Amino acid sequence: MIKEIFYDFFGKARPNAAHHTLAEMERAGFLHSIITQNIDNLHQKAGSKEVYEFHGNSRYLVCESCARAFLAEDSDLSSLPPRCPYCKTVLKPDFVFFGEPIPEDAHAHALNETQNADTFILIGTSGEIMPASSIPYKAKQNNKVIIEINIKPSRYTAAITDVFLEGKATEVAPRLMEAIQ
Ligand SMILES: [Zn+2]
User: Fold this and answer.
1) Which residues are CB-contacts of 10 (< 8 A; sequence separation ≥ 6)?
2) Residue 7 Cα, ligand 1 centroid: separation in angstroms?
3) pTM of the predicted model, to two decimals?
4) pLDDT, tens digit, for every residue of 144-167?
5) How many CA atoms lie within 13 A of 89 on its CB side?
6) Which residues form the catalytic set?
7) How far does the centroid of ligand 1 lie from the alpha carbon of residue 94, in Å?
8) Helix/strand/coil for 10
9) What is the pLDDT of residue 128?
10) pLDDT tens digit string along 82-125?
11) Which is nearest to 160 in space by CA: 178, 140, 176, 174?
12) How is residue 100 annotated by DSSP?
């Protein structure tokens, strides 16, 4: 099931206009980093460099015995489950499964940004998955400006959002980029 959902289906996904806009903002010096719960690697495919993934990433398969990591696209998934070529342990995708802890570096980086960034742009998040959902509140406590792009108001909108831009990220993000250039 993991192979079908995350590698056969999402593996074919391509970055959209919002992913490309964020990569462009980073190149132009407007964006310092991306904090995401996505595991689909599309920010990196679009060209973003500083991407902090709260839920890991699907691009590697990892061996929990010998700690080696293998690129999923180079791994043979014709016979399942895939096994470590070195120690034969079953390989696990390098994303966070329910009940597993959040990667420490991503969490630490996000907390740093709530101190150092001057603006947070929240894009297409419902704000309901902890602990990532607490990050914008911490930023607001530190007097950061909160811009939200969403198709409808979220639990953030009335609570902490300073500027609400209603619409799809694929349409609003490119307009935001045009406006700040
Ligand atoms: Zn191994």
Assistant:
1) 40, 58
2) 21
3) 0.86
4) 999 999 999 999 999 999 999 999
5) 15
6) 55
7) 14
8) helix
9) 78
10) 999 999 999 999 988 888 888 899 999 999 999 999 999 999 88
11) 140
12) S
